[in-house]
Amino acid sequence: MAGEYALRGLAVPESLDLLQDLLEQVRREHPDLHETDVSMFETAIVEIHGNVVEHGHPPGQVIYAFELEVSADRLVGILADTGVAVPDLSTMDELPHELAESGRGLWLAKATLDDLQYARMGDRNTWKLVRNRTDA
Amino acid sequence: MEIEKTDRERGITVLRLEGRLTMVSAPRLKSVIDEAVDSGHPRVVVDLAAVTFMDSSGLGTLIAGLKKARQADGDVRITGVTQQVATVLALTNLDRVLRAHPTVEAATDGW
User: Fold this and answer.
1) pLDDT digits (tens, 9 = 90+) for A66-121
2) ipTM
3) Which of A32, A68, A83, B26 could form a disulfide with A62 if both were Cys (CB 3.0 to 4.6 A apart)?
4) Is the peptide bond before A58 cis (omega within 30 degrees of 0)?
5) Do A39 and B83 touch (CB under 8 A)?
6) What residues of chain A, 55 to 94, have a C-beta less than 8 Å from chain B?
């Protein structure tokens, strides 16, 4: 994908802020985007990248690359990382107990997108995030 | 994220948060809630009016705080819920556990 926006670096907690700053830039440069679409896409990417930061192995050494394309009808993001661990995809389909303190991230990512795909491609984890635009 | 803490009477603490509540800032919020409960203020109001974004780590921290506060006969109540936060609460079915109050005063009602 020829990403309109791109970011790469070490998957550490601070990289979440960089991703969110990038989404702020998207808001500024695409004022026609519905805020709900941007904030729901932001929710999903923060959850998925947060999962990489928290569970990526080896910790602090995983490299991520993110690309985002804004088109007339949708937002498409590709997030790849070099972590050796495959994420626990079972948490995408089931919410934990209401007083659980974790385990909701991938559920939330799936719920805020129109399509979420995961693939292990070579030595990389790759996520594709799609949010259809409300006004398209 | 900024956290402004105000202790009130009857074991009430009001925390006004500003900025992004994510895995970057959530551990700090956890420390502040723990400290409030441990120092005899288990009735905690978290004012989210200036929170621009919350993720599941923020949510988990509020749940952890709520459990700790309830063990000390208190509670965690939230107010100032913005659209993104309201959606996150609704999609995870936690809007019933962390019910949004319209104002800080309404949140402290009955305490």
Assistant:
1) 999 999 999 999 999 999 877 888 888 999 999 999 999 999 999 999 999 999 98
2) 0.95
3) A83
4) yes
5) yes
6) none
